[in-house]
Amino acid sequence: MVYVLGARKGQTMVVKVWAKGKNAVFQIRHKKTKKYLPGTEPGKDARTWTGALPYSGNYEVIVGGTRGNASYNISFTIM
């Protein structure tokens, strides 16, 4: 599943994902530059991330399962 969030450079983003089997993870990348945010690159298995955004524009939060399909809850905060 891909979620698209708009934000401005310098804003703080918080993303958290919860899954009963702890098998849901995500990546975050800037839609235009395709650059991943540090710690959310493929293979990093991010379940929580907080940081200042390096670019203005849309960010894609890409959620997937580490072992098959994952039933999960996710929260986003941009401030």
UniProtKB/TrEMBL annotation:
This is Uncharacterized protein.
